[in-house]
Amino acid sequence: MNLSKLSEILNEEPKFRFVQANKALFQDFISSWDEVSNFSKNLRERLNLNCPIEIKAELIGAKNAKSLKALIELIDGEKIETVLIRQKTKEGTRNTVCLSSQVGCALACAFCATGDFGFRRNLDYLEIVEQVLFWARFLKDEGREEKIDNIVFMGMGEPFLNYDEFIKAAKFLNNEETFNFAARRLSVSTSGIVEGIKKISGEKLQINLAISLHTADENLRKDLMPIAKKYSIREILKAVDNYILKSGRRVMFEYLMLKNINDSDKDALALAKIMRKPLYMVNLIPYNPTGRFQASSPERMEKFKKILEENQVPVTLRHSVGAELSAACGQLRGRK
Ligand code: SAH
Ligand code: SF4
């Protein structure tokens, strides 16, 4: 897909063509310009030639699996992964899409497969949007009356180190002339880039914020996440408190459960101590083994959760979409 020439071509047309093109692409999820019957044959041909909308992708996993992965090939041949998670609920299937914001990631967290892969480049906002479009077309082709319910920026990369394109993509998804996707159903996860937390505090967009904390111990955090050498937990929480003050929104702290590393009773108490604040909540994430560590046992996770609850910290575990998602997202590598 390459829409860089779209404005140029449509500028020669009456203005309402732009509205029609946006609707066709981002609301009707066409796979070819030929489907836009209210465009002249000539215009459709020019669009087919100059603005290819085909998305080159390889689907990984069975079509009816609970979580599906796609490897999307970008114009320069780089590949990114995106995930669709389908959750059965009483009201029907809930579909969550996980987006990558960069090709790879420079932050090299010890537990993350994307971190092992290294950093290649930033995505531009349309490459981020393309991932949503891929799943929207996928659901449409399946012929079920299902839609995308949630979109999370939790795939490859650190969204706040590509802030401008990330926020442009989020606003594009929210824009009623394009995707018209509710901001409340958008979430972004950061490893704790303080400048990004400050910037998002100033945005009107009501997107949800998640912070990858993973431990309350400053030194351990530096071992697990090299970026922690730059931003202390104290600084991160200060920025979060300011965000809460400005937005009045809840903030989710993600906590990956690593066996014998950060899952003791003592760790839970240390976490509870810094998490007992209004609008803070903790999401315990089962670790998806990528080599270095082992996952905590279900019993250990339950105990850890209980300690947080006893200390009045709102906490979720495993069955939440967040946990399943992070587990799937944490496996993103960008190659098979
Ligand atoms: N870079 C951002 C967003 C992408 S990572 C961030 O770090 O927040 C999204 C989530 O997946 C993070 O909470 C990350 O800690 C988690 N994750 C990474 N590796 C994982 C793994 N192997 N198993 C489970 N979750 C993982
Ligand atoms: Fe990057 Fe997030 Fe993975 Fe850390 S966890 S390496 S910040 S994608």
Characteristic key phrases:
ten-stranded mixed beta sheet; single chain; DNA polymerase, domain 1; binds S-adenosyl-L-homocysteine; alpha/beta; 2 domains; TIM Barrel; two-stranded antiparallel sheet; elongated; 336 residues; 12 strands; binds iron/sulfur cluster
Structure summarized in a few sentences:
The protein is built from 12 helices and 12 strands. With 336 residues, the protein is α/β, with parallel strands linked by helices. Helix 7 packs parallel to helix 9 and helix 10 runs parallel beside helix 11.
Fold and architecture overview:
- With 336 residues, the chain is α/β, with parallel strands linked by helices.
- The protein has helices at residues 6-10, 16-26, 41-50, 113-117, 125-142, 163-174, 194-201, 218-224, 233-247, 265-275, 298-310, 321-329, and strands at residues 57-60, 67-73, 79-89, 92-98, 102-104, 119-122, 150-153, 186-190, 208-212, 251-257, 280-286, 315-317.
- The strands form 2 sheets. The protein has a 10-stranded mixed sheet, with helices on both faces. A two-stranded antiparallel ribbon has the order 5-6.
- It folds into 2 domains: 1-54, Orthogonal Bundle (DNA polymerase, domain 1), CATH 1.10.150; 55-335, TIM Barrel (Alpha-Beta Barrel), CATH 3.20.20.70.
- The protein is built from 12 helices and 12 strands.
- 37% of the residues lie in helices and 20% in strands.
- The two termini are 22 Å apart.
- α5 packs parallel to α6, α7 (194-201) runs parallel beside α9 (233-247) and α10 (265-275) packs parallel to α11.
